[in-house]
Each structure stands twice: as C-alpha cells, then as structure tokens.
Amino acid sequence: MASVATKLAREKAVLEGLGSNGKAVNYLKQDFEALRKQCLQSGALFKDEEFPACPSALGYRDLGPYSPKTQGIIWKRPPDLVPNPQFIVGGATRTDIRQGVLGDCWLLAAIASLTLDQEILDRVVPQNQSFQEGYAGIFHFQFWQYGEWVDVVVDDRLPTKNGQLLFLHSEEGNEFWSALLEKAYAKLNGSYEALTGGSTVEGFEDFTGGISEAYDLRKAPSNLYQIIQKALQAGSLLGCSIDITSAAETEAITSQKLVKGHAYSVTGAEEVNYHGRPEKLLRIRNPWGEVEWTGAWSDNAPEWNYIDPMQKKALDKQADDGEFWMSFSDFQRKFTRLEICNLTPDTLSSNEIHKWGMTLFSGNWRRGSTAGGCQNYPATYWTNPQFKIRLDEPDDDHDGSANPKRAPERCSAKQRTAQQLLRQGIASATHLAFMELSLCQRPGCRKKKSETLGNQTDVHLSRDFFSRNRPVARSDTYVNLREVSNRFHLPQGEYLIVPSTFEPFKDGEFCLRIFSEKQANAQEIGDTVAANPYEPHVADKDIDSEFKSLFQKLSGEDCEMTANELQTILNRVISKRTDIKSDGFNINTCREMISLLDNHGIGTLGLVEFKILWMKIQKYLEIYKKVDTDYSGTIDAHEMRNALKEAGFTLNDKVQHSIALRYACSKLTIDFDGFVACMVRLEMLFKMFQILDKDKHGVVQLSLAEWLCCALV
Q1: Cβ partners under 8 Å of residue 451, min gap 6
Q2: DSSP assignment, residue 98?
Q3: Is 429 helix (H, G, I), strand (E, B) or coil?
Q4: Is 709 labeled as catalytic in the residue annotation?
Q5: CB–CB of 124/21 below 8 Å?
Q6: I need a labelling partner for 369 at 20 to 30 A (CA). Which of 59, 292, 387, 421 fits?
Q7: Which of 140, 169, 286, 480 is flagged as catalytic?
Q8: β-strand 25-26 against 148-155: which pairing, if any?
Q9: What pTM did the predictor assign?
C-alpha cells in the first residue's frame, strides 16, 4: 500500500514538472543550494558522504581497493593543486578535454561535442559555479536519465598521482569543470571504473535527453552525407569509431594516425570546390587532443592549396589540437561506425534550427499483468503495453505518389532494469532483457488531419487483433541492449507500438520515446478507468417462495444474514463444485459483500439484498467459467483481463498490475473465491468514488479522517 502511494505521489509530482529541465530531480535527495548554504554557514568544505573520496569511488576490479593501479592515489581539492583554480577559463571548449588513464574516450568525445553548443552545455554544466565567490567545495551537474533530468552534486576532491589529476583534465592546468563533470557522471554510474568502455551515444543521450541512431558505414545509406549535414544543422551530436577485431587492437594507431577502438566526435561538414568538382569534407575531433589523421585534407595537406583561399582560411586551422578534416569518402573507408544523437525541443530553445518533436511515455513490464513476451507467446503478447501514434503529414520530399511516406520517425525504448548493476560490474549484459519494438498498422484508420486520434483509446487491443495484423516495422529483433531504437519511414495512418521483452513474465521498466520531424499524435492505449458492472434489479415480489424459505432458514429468526452466516452458505455451495477451484470464502470477503449491498448500514443483508448478491455471484461464476479456456478450474492473470472486461470494468495497466499483485498466487493463477473477492472490491471502490464525486469531475478530495473511514470499510 505504501509503495503504491509513493508511486502515485511521484507521478503527481512529474505532472507538476518534476524531472523537467527547469525542475530537475535531486539525485539521492541531495539539494545543491541547501548543502552549499549549510557549508558556508559552518565554514567547512563539503564532503560528499554519498560518493566519498575513497577506493570504492574509483572502482571494483581494475580500479578496485587492492588493485596496483590504485596505489599511491591521493584525493585533493583544486586549491591544493594550483594557486589560482578556476571552474572555467575563457569559456568551455573542445580543447578542455584531455584523457587521463581512464578508458572513457567515448565519454570525452561526447563532452567535446557538448561544448559546441553553449545552450546545451549550460544545461549540463550550470553557470555561476566558482572557486572564488560562494566556494564551499561543492559543485553540481545535470544529466538526463530515463525520461527525467537529475541534478548530481559532488565535492571537489579529485584523484591525483604525483600532484597531477589522474583522469580527465583540461589543457589549462588551473581549469576544473571537465574533471568535476566526469566525477559527477562517475557518481551517477557508481564509480569511475564504470565509465571504462561505452558508447559515445550513451553520453550524448545522458547529456541531452536526445534519441540516438547508429550506422554501420559499410552498409550506409546513399544519402548519409545529407543525413550528417541535416543532423549538424539541427544541433545533433555525432560520434564515430573504428571497430577492432581483437583486444590487442584496442587504441592501436594506424599508419595514418587514426586510433582503433577509440571514440571520435564529428563536429562539422562542408563542401568545397576542388579541381572543379564538389568535395565533401567532415571535421573530426580526437578527445586525446593530439594524434591526428595524416591523410588527404589533414592539417597542411596539399589538397588545401587547390580550393578557394577564403575557404582554406576558414577551415584549415593547422593546429595540433586533435581536430582535423578528411574527405567523406575516406571517412566511409576508414571508420566503421557513426552515431547520431538527435535533440528534442526540451533540449533546445533556439528558433533558428529545426527541432524534432518528441513524446515520452514511462512504462513497465509486470509479471502477471503487462509482461507478455514476444509473439511466440500469443496468449500473453497482447497484454504488453500498447501505444498509438497517428501520422498525418507527408515528408517534404515525397514524390507525390498516392501513398506518400512520412518524414522519418524514430522510436526508442530504453530499459533501466539492471543498468546500474551492469555499469558496476555486478551484472552482465545477460541481465538486460532482450527487447524489441514492433509497429502494426491499424486498419481503417486513415482519417482527415483535423480528426482526433481514433475513438478507442480506452481499449487495450486483444489477442485477436494481433493474430490478424502482423507488424509492418520493427527494431532489430530482440537484443539485450540498454536501448533499442529504429528509424521508420511509414505511410500516413495510425499505428500501434508494442514494446516487448522476448520472454513473458519478466519484470522491467522502460521509457518509450517517439521522435518525429513532422507533427505526430501519440498516446497510451488503455489508460481509461471506468465501470459498468452487472446490477440486477430485484423487488420483494419478484422473489419466489422457495428462495424466501431458504433465506429464512439460513438467516434465522431475525431474517438478517450476518457475515458468518453468509460465509457458511457460500462455502457449503462452493465445496460441492468440481469444475472450479476455491480455498473457500474468507470472512473479510463476506464482510465486503455485505458492505457493498448493505444500504442501511447495519452490517447484515436482508432478503432482497441477499437475492441481488446471489445473482451477482451467479454472474461472476458464468464469467469465470467462460474465460477459463483450458478448463483448469482457475484463471490465469492474463485471462483476468478478459474476465474484468466481461464484468464491465475498463482498467488501465497500473490497476491491472495491482489486481495481479493482490489476487494472483505465485503461479499467477486466481481461484474462484479470489475472483469474486476482486469483483466485489472493485464494485465497492467504484461505488464509493461515485458517491463522493458529487460534481462528477473525476476527482475526490478527502480529509484524513474521511479517507480512513473509506479505506476501513
């Protein structure tokens, strides 16, 4: 009960803006301003107890407490290292990124790209931080994590050896913003060692909240250069790398000074006129700050002498700063992978560039309610979370065909289950669920743009729908990655998106993001809660004499049936049935039955009330046997969805999960007495709400005493 209340309170806070860029969540409940104020008042520099300056912050294996690599490390604050430490010197630039002994070049490439856009940088590295004014040994940074922005505080104690920073550092010896940013990201991931090895696009997403896509350059689309140009114009972040075939090739340097297994960032794309023909160029950045490409179009290469002098002056910087130009054709031959992180309206406020639209949903796979597995399990696949997207506007470049394609849509599902364990070396990639996104087109849904997103948003589409409609698009088939995503070009229409794991009954959390260059309407299916239960109308004159006689015999002289008497008769009847399984009705269920129908508040049932209850139980039995398709005498948790629908209840996934938790056993089956208890409880809750919601606004406000009276009924 407490966990449900906590989740509801959190969801309400999210609706009020918690987790947005302007109202980031305090990571580990540490409030930067409050902590800094406390330190300034006490005159003591901040010491972060959540990420202490000790061996555990360094790592768990290669940088573990007993590793030779960690011997001799001393944690020092910048004022102890240099006489005049600065947070940022002359603005944060790509040259502030110098790799230390940590193998996190992927992260450094992302940080380098971050510096290309001041607005994005200010988001991640909040301004007004200093080693002079208001200095208290505490700094903070913001990252995007699973659909929300989090504010991470750190103290400024940094690992050093021989008086030098051990990890990321700036070319300027007294500048420390990048080293502190790396520490904050290490804290978010559990340790510095957790940053060893990774994908640049992970850093891109965590710095921007953008959505990523990756290209194998050996199988690149013909318009890849245009995709790169468009991405750079839209403020997207780009990274590239050269695959290795063995561990021995890691960071091996080729004859033309490219580093294998190393993360670079792509920072520019220009076309020049070379010998009377256009030449496509890309600007690449090595986070090491040195070791530059020496082939065509490198610094001081002869090719620069054959282009317009003004272009040469603008492009050819001839500095050993790790940044260089190369032809697009060489890029495709020499590099093997390109990653692009497309940014969202939440990331950028500028009106000068085209921004992707983005819709975000948080979802869960829950054993017994929404963890349906893949389509190899048709009995449960349809219970997976479902989302609907409507595509109305065609691509600007479509050819006028009768069935125009949309501008590209990107769908992404990111799972958070086991991610922290994976980062800390406690779990392996096998702990990540195998995920897939599939899209089915909803037949007959081609409507005018002015019309709404269909009229069945409260209906969770059933097994029959998926047996008749195969996916029209999907992500790579079931991979165990932190995120699965794909770019889709689809005809106009309405589509159903289903995120799923390969195996059913596996708990997990995900956030689904839908990016669109054109306007797209998206919403979760089955988010409506409503009830129209069976309500028999009975009068005294309608009850036959045989039933009256039986009631008088069971209820005694007062002709009022108590909870104990009701329990006795129900269990006597149910024990004689062999087609359904039951442990017998408990006294609490019988009390709830009486509460549901006791209009006089005396805690017993009269003749008419008992007749109504009896008819309800008969109806419940009819539904129960109908959905028990395998005649096992019980119903499975996924069959419970059908039973609730038959009983007149429309419930969202959260309520379905709560029902499975309360009424299903460890084998996810529900016997008849549990089913009846659930039906009675639901009827009671809906009835109470309708009585209290006098204005019919769908909202009820109660005092604590009123809430307790309702909850204790």
Answers
A1: none
A2: B
A3: helix
A4: no
A5: no
A6: 421
A7: 286
A8: parallel
A9: 0.71
Cα distance between residue 612 and residue 620, in whole Å:
12
**445 — pLDDT class (breaks 50, 70, 90):** low
Q: How far apart are CA 168 and CA 184, in angstroms?
A: 12
Which tokens go with 284?
Answer: 């690449």
- Cβ density class 243-262: b for 16+ within 10 Å, e for less: eeeeeeeeeeeeeeebbbbb
Q: Residue ranges of the domains in the chain?
A: 25-198, 211-342, 357-528, 540-712
pLDDT at 477 over 80: no
DSSP-based three-state secondary structure for 271: strand
**Gap between the Cα atoms of 533 and 127, Å rounded:** 57
The residue type found at 240 is: C
Residue type for position 478: Y
CA distance 139 to 156: 7
Tokens (6 digits) for 279 = 């030449």
- Please tell me the distance from the alpha carbon of residue 432 to that of residue 572, in angstroms, as a whole number: 49
Dump pLDDT digits (tens) for 603-642. Answer: 899 999 999 999 999 999 999 999 998 899 999 888 898 8
Question: Topology of domain 211-342, per CATH?
Answer: Cathepsin B; Chain A (3.90.70)
Tokens in use for 404? 């125009």
Contact (Cβ atoms closer than 8 angstroms) between residue 425 and residue 61: yes
Q: Which of 105, 240, 374, 411 is catalytic?
A: 105
Q: What are phi and psi of 139, to 5 degrees?
A: -140, 165
R_g over Cα of the chain:
32
CA angle, residues 481, 483, 485, in degrees to nearest 5: 120
Nearest partner of 674 among 643, 709, 708, 631, judged by Cα: 643
On whether the CB atoms of residues 138 and 131 are closer than 8 A, the answer is: no
Report the alpha-carbon distance of residue 265 to residue 114 in Å, rounded: 10
DSSP-derived 3-state class of residue 323: strand
Alpha helices in 556-606 (DSSP H): 563-574, 587-597
Q: Are strands 158-161 and 74-76 parallel, antiparallel or unpaired?
A: antiparallel
Closest CA to 371 of 328, 409, 339, 415: 415
Burial class (CB in 10 A: 0-12, 13-18, 19+), 17: exposed
Confidence of residue 290 (pLDDT cuts 50, 70, 90): confident
Q: Which residue has the higher pLDDT, 488 or 233?
A: 233
Cα–Cα distance list, 284 to 44, 264, 299, 447 (Å):
44, 7, 12, 46
Residue 339 to residue 201: CA distance in whole angstroms = 6
* Domain made up of 357-528: CATH architecture: Sandwich (2.60)
Q: What is the DSSP string of 64-90?
A: STT-GGGTT-EEE-HHHH-SS-BS-SS
Instruction: State the alpha helices, DSSP H only, in 375-523.
Output: 378-381, 419-423, 463-468
User: Class of the 540-712 domain?
Assistant: mainly alpha
Q: Are strands 237-241 and 264-274 parallel, antiparallel or unpaired?
A: antiparallel
CA pair distance 283, 315, nearest whole angstrom: 9
* Active-site annotation holder among 39, 140, 240, 262: 262
Q: Residue written as tokens 């921004």?
A: 355
How far is the C-alpha of 644 from the C-alpha of 656, rounded, in Å? 9
Is 638 a catalytic site residue? no
